[in-house]
Amino acid sequence: CTHCCKNLLVVVPVPLQSVEVQVDVKDHVATVVSTLLYQNKEEKPIEAVFVFPMPSEAAVCHFSAKVGQTLIVAEVKEKKQAREEYDDALSSGQQAFLLEESDQSPDIFSMSVGSLPPGESASIRLEYVTELDVQADEALRFCLPAVLNPRYQPTGTETGSVTVTSVPSSLVPYDLIFLARVQSARPISKVESNCTMDPLEFLSQDQTAASVKLAAGHKFERDVELLIYYKDTHEPSAVVEAGQASAKAGTLMGDPAVMLSLYPEFPKDIMSSVSSSGEFVFLLDRSGSMEGGQIASARDTLLLLLKSLPMGCFFNIYSFGSTFEQIFPESVEYKQETMEEALKKVEMMQADLGGTEILAPLERIYSQSCIPNQPRQLFVFTDGEVGNTKEVINLVKSNSGSHRCFSFGIGEGASTALINGLAKEGGGHAQFITGSDRMQPKVIQSLRFAMQPAVVDISVKWDLPKGVSATVLSPPLTSIFQGQRSLLYAQLTGQVLTEGCVTVKYSLAGRPTENKLNFSLKPTEDTGLTVHRLAARSLIRSLEQEQGDHRGQIDDAKKKEIIDLSVQSGVSSSFTAFIAVNKTSGEAIQGPLLRRDVPVPSNMEIDCADVMLGAADCDDDDFYYDDEEKYALPESKAKRDPLLELVSLQKASGCWELEPALAKAVGKTTKDLEDKQPSAVMWATILALVWLHGLKADAKDEWELLVMKAVTWLQSQNASGLAECVEAANSLLGCSVQKNALGI
């Protein structure tokens, strides 16, 4: 296993004392500065190695170390050269600092702090910029990954050099200080978090600037997530940034760069219709790490998905661990019998299939022929703990012409590289479900996206003044969804003083559509090269993905192009690393170095370093590890909530039938329902709809699709007495839902 936990049987001092993180958010871009304080409390010099998670979409753009009064700023160099310089410095008694991206996955980084003498401290500064994703409720999501679970390396795949040292989150020996400042042209409505925060503090009267701080005592049991809400809805925008004065004109860093944020608006008549065709393939992670509440939530979500599918479509469900299973030999037509058979098997699903080998089931799915006139939509649910991320993403990319892939990262520490990569290369949409998030609303939003007509023939046209040209640095737009942001980066050459225009053209349900954005070409002041770095990161990732086979081999010319771009822009890549050597440290540091692996929090207490009993009185900076004791997470025994109980009773056609279970779900007796019954055909369905609208309106985004199906069924009955049924249901349930509110 490439990424495994080390199990130590002795007391191990941990040199990392604290991590301080400052986040500056401007509209939908965050600049993150992390300061890590190391101290050697031992009697011999040490080398501290810290393997930690990083957002896969981040552009890492600065790495430096301060030892005493000396500041050593790292340079970006080719990875092999950087490693050699680091090793040479240590062997000659110099201090050196190395930061590199994992060869296996761009969301894991390794930081090496070399030759720290006894009693000495070092302050390490790491900086990156990243875009914030738009959520279903229009919030912008920032996530500071803190949890890094072991990544499963399938048998027979390439091994690598990154080893993760994990401990249960409650035993992390260093502190986290976290402060976020938010600034926007629009007023800030609120900032929410999955962690305990001090109250939001507004820094301006118009509420366009605010700060929020993590409350003391954070236990590292979860990633730190912020949801930022602005008072006005998102609108298309452009930011033009002047080039770096010291960089050569004509280069990416020397010329101005532009970042375009597009929010396509589709015609309302197209959006109100839902496609009744499609092949929906669900792929569920049943590895051991999904045990407990995660697998239970995934089962409930599959129930909701199956009830929300339209009649006439096709579907199948695959699940995987070390092996994989499928409910049907091939996708089947969606009807009552097939839905019931699938639900019975879903109810029995447990997290009992071992490791996380996702490649084999994907290969099986892609080997199945597509069904004519039934566009394939793939939904992948996983905690993302795989070691062959790049191989999996390249397989999805090589099959992107035949399907759309919607991915869901479940739980703390889900691999952002895997989840975002699947959706990006599969032309779909990615969602992350952490902490107390309900999985269902996010999944149903993606189902709505999947049921939207696919946007095809996407093209981007630039209208710029004479003498000004744009070189696009982003990959081509392959998917557009209503209400979701699409980002474009470009390098501008020529005299950029006036205005420009960009037009995105595409075909939606056979109808040519276009969205225009006019923008000023005047550079924005004081952006700190953020746009250039994000543009460089976008181009680097695109070049890294331009690979022939799904094994991810890359030719030397492409590799050199990536290295040159990375060095020029100062943004890391899979082929480069940051290296800093302290050449002013005076005397050579004597003696062999003790290697100290800094532990990272993990929610995986199985296969991780476990705590030796009786170690309660050890120093806070020390760790006892033992792998004799194993801790298993308890399976959730929670009673299914009434909403899911009601949903489970709906038939594939969209109707409900009068039965004792329905009475129980709506909190009544069978006699209550029969006494109020005005019409045998529609009564149960109307009752369910009134209950949903009247008592579960806050969960509308979860039940909206299955209610649309119920309304279609009611309309097909051509029965009279609808108003009488609605009145009787309101009377029985104590609601006041109007007939027209039901859509009938």
UniProtKB/TrEMBL annotation:
Residues 1-130 form the VIT domain. InterPro entries: VIT (IPR013694), VWF_A (IPR002035), vWFA_dom_sf (IPR036465). This is von Willebrand factor A domain containing 5A. Coiled coil: none annotated. Residues 279-451 form the VWFA domain. PANTHER family: VON WILLEBRAND FACTOR A DOMAIN-CONTAINING PROTEIN 5A (PTHR45737). It holds the Pfam family VIT. SMART domains: VIT, VWA. It comes from the Eukaryota.
